[in-house]
């Protein structure tokens, strides 16, 4: 029999926790799945190297980024947007099947994401509270996959300010932001270095899967 959360979206997996309408699947990926995903990501960043996007306010982002898919997320002095090419001039590599498979499991949607944004956090990187609103259709969810060291994820509200709630995201955790959660303010306050052995040099990778246009 279907439970309440499952019946909300037919075909989607039941999360372990729901915080402010954000669904969290704890350790959805086992060690072997995490390791093969990291191998797939090594091939992606070999073709599309990580870079530090310049922000519109003139400071490079502390988190290094790259993307896979038809579009990649990009930022410079003129603003945030999606681009069909890496700043080096080549097309972004395709999204690995191991990553698309996670989208399929947690969303149950037939529409596939256009972009897999790859965020790499070293021990001192953070991401301030922001909304994700560079996509054309907010009715599609954003799916996040965490790999490597733990990150402290902060969830706010639909407008700036107000009370926030935090939870640690660990390696293999998958988060789905759909429905009322899609436009919530969120960020990563800090990384807990040395909490995972997945990445030989440490650090945290976060993948976000997005439908762009
Ligand atoms: C809630 N990344 O790339 S993932 C981002 O861990 C981003 O790197 C963080 O925020 C990270 O934009 C958080 C979880 C997440 C991603 C997208 C969301 C939460 C979200 C979109 C809407 C609401
Ligand atoms: Fe975000």
Describe this protein's structure.
- With 213 residues, this protein is an alpha+beta fold.
- It has one domain (2-210): Alpha-ketoglutarate-dependent dioxygenase AlkB-like (Jelly Rolls), CATH 2.60.120.590.
- Helices cover 15% and strands 33% of the residues.
- The chain has helices at 4-8, 31-47, 97-107; strands at residues 17-19, 22-25, 64-69, 72-76, 79-83, 115-121, 127-130, 142-148, 150-155, 165-169, 174-177, 186-192, 204-210.
- Strand 1 and strand 2 (22-25) form a beta hairpin.
- It is globular.
- The model has no long low-confidence stretch (mean pLDDT 95).
In summary, what is this structure?
With 213 residues, this protein is of the alpha+beta class.
Descriptive tags:
single chain; 213 residues; alpha+beta; Jelly Rolls; seven-stranded antiparallel sheet; four-stranded antiparallel sheet; 3 helices; globular; binds N-(carboxycarbonyl)-S-(naphthalen-2-ylmethyl)-L-cysteine; binds fe (iii) ion
